[in-house]
Amino acid sequence: MNITFLLADMVLAVIISIVFAGVIIPQILLIAFRKQLFDVPDERKIHTSAVPRLGGIAFMLVTMFTVFLIIGVNLAVDETTVCRDLSQDVLHFCFGFCALILIYVVGIADDLIGVRYRAKFVVQTLSALLIVASGLYISDLYGLMFVHTIPPIVGYVLTVIVIVFITNSINLIDGIDGLASGLCMVALLFYCIVFFSFGHYTYALLSAALFGTVVPFFYYNVFGSAEKQKKIFMGDTGALTLGVIISFLSLRINQFGVESNINNAFVLAFAPLIVPCFDVIRVYFHRIREHKSPFLPDKNHIHHKLMRAGLTPGWAMISIVVFSIGVTVLNLAFSYILSLSLLMILDLVCYFAGHGLLNKIISMRANKQAA
Prior knowledge:
By secondary structure, the protein is an all-alpha fold. It has a domain at about 5-260. It is built from 15 helices and two strands. It has helices at about 5-35, 55-75, 80-90, 90-110, 115-135, 150-170, 180-195, 200-225, 235-255, 255-260, 265-270, 275-290, 300-310, 315-335, 340-370, and strands spanning about 140-145, 145-150. A two-stranded antiparallel ribbon has the order 1-2.
């Protein structure tokens, strides 16, 4: 096994996807402006100019092109390590790719003509069922709430819920420039390192390719100018695509604990997703407490609150991404000395204590402005 060659595969995957996405995204911008396909500003949105929201179209195309190209290059030079690894997980990838196509198509439809939430929910559920059918499902909670092995039927249902929840968490956190893509890049880089460390090179390759694909989008989304027609959003296509692939990757890592007796597999799988997932839980409960539908959008997400506390959208994005990196590292470190249940309780206490402090800062700032 040539580790140097495999590392070169990962680096090459990032480079190819960056270059390919860097070529495709300007073409998507050109088409969007010619066909007037914009995300129009309204009272709930931060941006004030019409911006194309089709950037996510590039995600699946570039990622799959890169993955299959690298695999083909490996075969051409008679390097079979990645291919042998793929052969062990081919069922996962076949069903996972079908799930990705479903969610990708409904995302494009939603960005172009609009799709009812119930229809999107049905497609998300079908995509989740395909992933479960591949054999990827939660079969062990590793002591969370004092539960370990769970019956398969319970695992299937729980996994579908988790996939739909993560997918929507990524979609709902996409409220300011660079936030969803920044959080996903952190998760993907972390997953690539984890998969490579445990010898699952095809999954590492997928993580690296998607990471590289998101990099040019992040540039155009954060630094692009709407006035110069260089700014773009990922839209539902991008958010749903990222959500499904990240769900797929996290579930595979979570299975490491069952396969290889890795005690902190649950933390490795889900620690990078704490920020978007906790934020959605908090927002949903807030809406219910206010007697509002949990599915109706509002401006109560963490990035909205940071801006009300005085941060610019750019600094709010940077703060949340850096916080996510810190949370991931700390959870990984503490996973070696704390039980999963205690670690989860600690995460919840810290998150909601921080949120309470943020509310006080917002209140003090509002009182100061009123005075």
